[in-house]
Design a protein that fits this description.
The protein has 506 residues and is of the alpha+beta class. The chain is built from 16 helices and 23 strands. Strand 15 and strand 16 form a beta hairpin. The chain binds flavin-adenine dinucleotide.
Length: 506
């Protein structure tokens, strides 16, 4: 008799249900059995509500429309992150999705900017990013097909979503169950291993369950790969020392901005995520630099919370770092069980669906599962290190004075590969990024300039000497044209709120 391959997913948070949805959709039911076990005794973490643009590809994979997703998750759209007080007090910039400006006769916008912007009195990148301009105008348009010819500001709009974490998990749970995933509520009381492989699970109900493969989506508990298989965890706390978050919802904002807000605080930063029924807020801080009590007071003041509402704050503790081998033997860690790079650039949910799809592909196309596991681990590590460096750069480049937390970030030793990137940018405006890296050059460009990396540099960056830069007047006209075109193109767009309202009606 033909035996199906059984894949058992442990955990019913976002990671568990995203993995269940991906596997149930992508693996043929006549060959694979997908089962998910979740404990009623351990609640999902319940945060993770902002995303990045590749989420559209995930929805395409699931065959779920943006309208359906918004409706099911109480979501809103996101054009980027508005960073307030990062770099130095009072400073503001946006890390907007998509490109900034456009090329001029084969020369990049960045090179022309670095050569001329200061001399010509252009100080701020915001007007040169279509996504940033639309975001601050409170307008929105779904992504447009790209024609690839000429500068078309609306084709440069890139977006993602904000969503309610609980509703996301419920939506994907229904989706996965409809596609055949078996759902069981039980607590995994012990994990039985044999020869460094997961053999079976003993459940609180007394049952024993076995499977061919186990997906460890048990969150920070890390039941299989960390606890049972003793996977090696690489700790990032010396670079990314935030280890706690105070989370509290507030009322829905009157005008829903299509962007996340990140505001620097005395020992970390706080987010504001606009949802349709409430606003998500959280203060991510380092307990080495502030006590929970002081952090609570700081957040309460920042959000102007009444004492009664301040009581609703919930503390979440975490550790930044990652598992060297998220796929070990027959167990694959996905989600917080595989690592966490802190939520500054909303990357965790992305890694969940990306690696759930990698896993599905390994089953469909893989011939040698050990080779698949090695490739999976290598890709995951590269992604984690790229994300880590990008996040550390946000902290490293700051001009705060008389603040222990921010000064400690200025003075920290950083990984060599990040040091090389920052030096290269300061000298030539170039950054060597691997192909397929999550954050493109223009993400780095916006963040590095936004944080003030060139503020104390009197001389200009020697933008590629070999390039023939346009002369100053032409550069001036070039900037003004882009500025006007973006402004004009974004003006007729509908208000974000109107787009949300229309999507709910469809
Ligand atoms: C403060 C903070 C803010 C964040 N913000 C973002 C963001 O904006 N964007 C983003 O992409 N990511 C964000 N993240 C990350 C995101 O929250 C997680 O990646 C995501 O929620 C996935 O979590 P998870 O499913 O791995 O873990 P969890 O949600 O913790 O789920 C774990 C599951 O395992 C189950 N479980 C545990 N033990 C057992 C057991 N013994 N038996 C059976 N089941 C068990 C639990 O019941 C639960 O269902 C944030 C994280 C934090 C800490």
């Amino acid at each position: 008799m033909f035996m199906k391959t059984k894949i058992l997913i442990a955990g019913g948070g976002s990671a568990g249900w995203i993995t269940a949805a991906v596997l149930s959709k992508g693996l043929p039911a006549q060959k694979y059995q997908i089962e998910l076990i979740e404990s009623q005794d351990v609640a999902p973490i319940g945060v993770g509500e902002a995303s990045i643009p590749p989420i559209f590809q995930f929805l395409t994979y699931l065959e779920v429309s943006p309208a359906e997703f918004i409706k099911q998750t109480g979501g809103t759209f996101k054009y980027g992150i508005d960073f307030e007080g990062w770099g130095s007090p009072g400073r503001r910039y946006m890390h907007a999705f998509g490109p900034v400006g456009t090329h001029f006769e084969g020369i990049t916008f960045a090179d022309i900017w670095l050569a001329y912007a200061e001399q010509l009195g252009f100080k701020n990148l915001i007007p040169f990013s279509s996504s940033a301009v639309a975001a601050y105008k409170g307008k929105f348009s779904l992504p447009k097909a790209r024609s690839g010819v000429g500068f078309k500001p609306l084709e440069q709009l890139f977006s993602a979503f904000h969503f309610d974490a609980g509703r996301l998990a419920n939506f994907l749970k229904d989706y996965a169950i409809k596609k055949g995933c078996i759902w069981r509520q039980d607590h995994i009381a012990s994990v039985n291993q044999h020869n460094q492989k997961i053999d079976s699970l003993t459940l609180a109900s007394g049952q024993t369950v076995t499977a061919d493969y186990f997906a460890d989506c048990t969150g920070q508990v890390g039941l299989f790969n960390k606890q049972t298989l003793n996977g090696e965890f690489l700790d990032w706390r010396s670079w990314l020392p935030c280890d706690s978050a105070l989370v509290v919802p507030t009322d829905r904002l009157e005008h829903l901005p299509p962007y996340t807000k990140s505001v620097a605080m005395s020992a970390g930063w706080r987010w504001q995520i606009p949802l349709q029924n409430r606003t998500g807020n959280g203060y991510v801080f380092s307990s080495q630099f502030i006590t929970q009590k002081h952090a609570e007071k700081e957040l309460q003041a920042a959000l102007k919370l009444s004492d009664q509402n301040a009581q609703k704050m919930r503390l979440i503790q975490f550790k930044t770092g990652y598992l060297k081998k998220p796929w070990q033997a027959n167990s694959i860690a996905i989600g917080l069980s595989a690592g966490f790079a802190e939520p500054l650039e909303s990357t965790s949910i992305h890694l969940i669906y990306k690696y759930a799809i990698e896993l599905k592909n390994a089953f469909i196309y893989g011939r040698d599962m050990q080779q698949e596991a090695d490739d999976f681990n290598l890709k995951f590590e590269q992604d984690m290190l790229d994300i880590r460096d990008f996040l550390i750069a946000h902290y490293k480049i700051n001009q705060y004075k008389n603040n222990d937390f921010w000064s400690s970030r200025q003075n920290m030793a950083i990984p060599d590969r990040l040091g090389q990137k920052l030096n290269s940018f300061k000298q030539s405006g170039q950054i060597d990024l691997p192909t397929g890296t999550l954050f493109s050059y223009y993400s780095w460009f916006q963040v590095l300039l936004g944080q003030g990396i060139l503020d104390d540099q009197n001389q200009q960056v020697a933008a590629l000497e070999c390039q023939k830069l346009p002369d100053k007047q032409i550069a001036d006209q070039f900037f003004k044209t882009i500025y006007q075109k973006i402004h004009q193109a974004t003006e007729p767009l509908s208000a974000h709120q109107a787009v949300l309202r229309d999507l709910q009606l469809n």
